[in-house]
Amino acid sequence: MPWRAIYAADASRSRGRLFPEPASPTRSEFQRDRDRILHSTAFRRLAHKTQVFIPHEGDHYRTRLTHSIEVGQIARALARALGLDDDLAEALALAHDLGHTPFGHTGEDALDEAMRPYGGFDHNAQALRIVTKLEHRYATFDGLNLSWETLEGLVKHNGPLTGPDGRPAGHYAERGLPIAITEYATLHDLRLDLYAGAEAQAAALADDIAYNAHDIDDGLRAGLFDFAQLAEVDYLRRRIEGIDVLYPGLERQRRIHELVRRVITDFIEDAIAESAARLQSSQVASADDVRALGRTVIGFSAPMGEAQAAIKRFLFANMYRHPTIKRIRVDAAQVVRDLFDVFFKAPELMPPEWASFAITRGVEDEAKMARVVCDYIAGMTDRYALAEHQRLFDLTPDLR
């Protein structure tokens, strides 16, 4: 059995669920959470949601689902090495992208713009909304009724959402907390002013590792950039040169894989060593000590942090802002805007269960109807969004 550190989350001492349930005789509370996430409708939909490329462009590019699985694997590796609860880390990794719209961040930006008069859209808040309200699977409650620790980590994996005074902080300082988070916080106190536990921090770091590595992989395979351009990043240049010394003349596909697996290994090993040192020096003696520490305990060393930042800058300039990707983003955003406009003006065009709910909520409050339309569109896969657009409009962009 893997060793468990004193600062790890303890499933046997979980703070429980909003709706109390009998304990499982065969699974820990965090294993139950992971399994509920895996079996959710929202998780299955990730198979057909864009990471960077539209899925029909090639069957070997990442989708939100394959990305989430990769993040889960890395999160487990970090957690096991550091003595954390790897089931909780994996559950958080698998759930972290549940709230994403069709067409990746492009869809999120378009939906946020459409929802600006009604509280905006935030994929992290939408993930909370899905697991606490929108999944309809159980007889006695909406959502998945996940444990406090999983919900806390899902909402705060990137850090506290408020200051000690309760004012929105960090990413939310200017716009305020999303409605989904403030609504749930009135029912279930997730201590938004504190950091999340170490497992959530591990899942967040795993996301960064997976993102950078697989975007290098997909970008090279798609021909958006080449090895010579990657060599502009010092860390990557050294890794490429090392591969070429070991395997001169290596075929391109194997060369790509050798680079990607070294990137993943380097960042995981650095994160384990750095995080272990931080945990030891901080002298935290419990999961609550980690939350109250006021800084992250799971992270990269300074040199690897600089390498990660350099990779992100490269990918932003050469992949996310590549002319081909930018053109697709423009068209994809228009699809989302068109769908929101038509369903908001004529909610009866949505499927009956959504239409009925939207119309009923619209009688109460226009903003509530807008949120129903937003939920419907946010849950769409890329291909379903395109199919709905083709059903309702004469001309639908070809996102290739």
Question: What are the key terms here?
Answer:
single chain, 400 residues, mainly alpha, 0% strand
Task: Write a brief structural summary.
This protein has helices at 29-38, 41-45, 64-82, 86-95, 104-114, 123-134, 148-156, 179-185, 198-222, 227-230, 234-246, 252-282, 287-292, 302-320, 323-345, 352-364, 366-378, 382-392. The protein is an all-alpha fold and 400 residues long.
Sheet with most strands: none
SSE order in H/E notation?
Answer: HHHHHHHHHHHHHHHHHH
Global structural class: mainly alpha
Terminal-residue CA separation: 48 Å
Low-confidence parts, pLDDT < 50 over ≥5 residues?
none
Radius of gyration, in Å, reads 22 Å
Assign an overall shape: globular
Strand proportion: under 5%
Number of helices: 18
- Record field, number of beta strands: 0
Describe the structure.
There is one protein chain. This protein is mainly alpha-helical and 400 residues long. The chain is built from 18 helices and no strands. It starts with 28 loop residues before the first helix and ends in an 8-residue tail after the last helix.
